[in-house]
Design goal:
The complex is a heterodimer of chains A (176) and B (221).
Chain A (H helix, E strand, L loop, with lengths): L2 H12 L3 H23 L2 H18 L10 H19 L10 H12 L6 H9 L2 H13 L3 H8 L3 H19 L2
Helix pairs in contact in A: 1-2, 2-3, 2-4, 3-4, 6-9, 7-8, 7-9, 8-9
Chain B lengths: L1 H17 L4 H13 L1 H19 L8 H10 L11 H4 L2 H9 L8 E2 L2 E2 L4 E6 L5 E8 L2 E6 L9 E9 L2 E8 L3 E6 L2 H4 L3 E10 L10 E10 L1
Antiparallel strand pairs in B: 1-2, 3-4, 4-5, 5-8, 6-7, 6-9, 9-10
Helix pairs in contact in B: 1-3, 2-3
The chains are: A mainly alpha (176), B alpha+beta (221).
Chain lengths: 176, 221
């Protein structure tokens, strides 16, 4: 997805251009919905969050700053924070705990398209398995430390350590 | 000491973006974010990095109705054949419009209107009928239901939107209205929209609705 095109669209949206808004929606909603759905695992709720996010995007398009990252990254932040707030405050959780098997399947499915970003792929690959798995579960599934602990059958302290070390290693790699 | 603090701030920003910063820590971090430029920069860095993972997720298309619902909530939705622009910025309509349905089908035969008697209802945003509408020959009547909010020192007024301009069909009493003759100018209209507004006693003083409370979908006349 070309950021230049999205930047032009978000600029137009900031000037209340409805056609640009629709085009921006068409281009980005499949990714944003996938992120949302992965987090809340409920279609209606994911759609509700997507709606709220796009309404926020319409109203706040003028606050987007290109030096703060890509348009898509900015939009992903809006969607993820909304979804995380929803999970937290409405105590939305997946109805069935995932089994170890489905956890592996989920992680696989979320990263299957991963090779598109060489830098992040390289750095994520440089993490050890547990660090990578813990970060994936937190980022894509919105899991708390305790939930990651449950799904990885480990202790809370170990999970926190995996995540912290993983993030530090990731930062080191990304800023090389 | 500063390095340790910076490192801790950096990790908090990372965990905030990741989603593992929870509870009071998250609330506190959000507050700090408002006041600290350096914290915003750290957060922005982690958003760029971690969201690159999100960008790589396999897309799933949402249902088509989602965009329509967004457009309705933003007030984009309007009739394809007329531009009742004054509706678009009315916040009351944003939700009334979404749940309100009324379709009136009036049939003409040459210059003589041949109306098929028809009954329908006007609904509020909770899907309760607030008016029962009867259309018969050249007139229509509205009868209020118990769900219609009672107004003190106010009146409801019925409007039809023709070519983007609201035209009054008269004040409606809070128990409903007797017959309204459908004026000739309205009979020539192919597509229109009706609305009910809240007005001071006696109706609009300037020929425009003050506060639109309910609005119909496009109707065929």
């Amino acid at each position: 997805m070309e950021n230049d095109k999205l930047e032009l669209l978000i600029f137009k949206v900031s000037h209340e251009n409805k056609n640009a808004f629709k085009e921006l929606y068409e281009l980005t909603s499949p990714k944003l919905y996938a992120i949302c759905y992965q987090l809340v695992q409920r279609r209606n709720l994911a759609e509700e969050i997507l709606q709220d996010a796009f309404i926020q995007i319409w109203h706040n398009a003028g606050t987007y700053q290109s030096n703060g990252g890509t348009v898509l990254s900015w939009m992903i932040s809006i969607v993820r924070y909304r979804a995380l707030d929803k999970i937290r405050y409405d105590k939305v959780r997946k109805e069935e705990p995932l089994s170890k098997l489905s956890e592996e399947q989920e992680t696989k499915s979320t990263i299957k398209d991963y090779e598109k970003d060489d830098n992040i792929e390289r750095c994520i690959d440089s993490l050890d398995f547990n660090q990578r798995q813990a970060i994936h579960l937190a980022y894509f599934n919105g899991y708390t430390h305790s939930e990651v602990m449950y799904h990885m059958s480990s202790s809370l302290g170990t999970v926190k350590s995996w995540i912290r070390r993983g993030l530090k290693n990731l930062e080191r790699c990304l800023t090389l | 000491m500063n390095d340790v603090y910076d490192s801790e701030q950096n990790m908090m920003a990372a965990e905030y973006v990741l989603g593992t910063l929870r509870g009071e820590d998250r609330t506190h971090f959000k507050r700090e974010l408002m006041n600290s430029c350096s914290l915003r920069e750290l957060t922005s860095f982690w958003e760029q990095q971690l969201n690159a993972m999100g960008e790589s997720i396999a897309p799933i298309s949402p249902r088509k109705s989602v965009l329509k619902r967004i457009e309705k909530r933003l007030g984009f939705m309007k009739s394809a054949n007329n531009g009742y622009s004054f509706f678009l910025f009315n916040p009351v309509l944003a939700y009334c419009f979404a749940t309100f349905t009324l379709a009136l089908f009036l049939y003409f035969n040459g210059n003589n209107m041949q109306l098929q008697p028809y009954q329908t209802a006007v609904f509020n945003y909770e899907n309760q009928a607030v008016f029962i509408v009867n259309i018969d020959k050249k007139s229509m009547s509205l009868v209020a239901t118990k769900a219609l909010p009672k107004l003190d020192n106010k009146d409801y007024e019925l409007w039809v939107i023709v070519e983007g301009t609201p035209k009054s069909l008269g004040v409606i009493s809070q128990t409903g209205l007797g017959n309204i003759l459908i004026p000739e100018w309205l009979q020539k209209t192919e597509l229109s929209t009706m609305a009910i507004s809240i007005e001071d006693k006696g109706g609009s003083i300037n020929g425009e609705p003050a506060e639109v409370k309910f609005v119909t979908n496009t109707i065929e006349i």
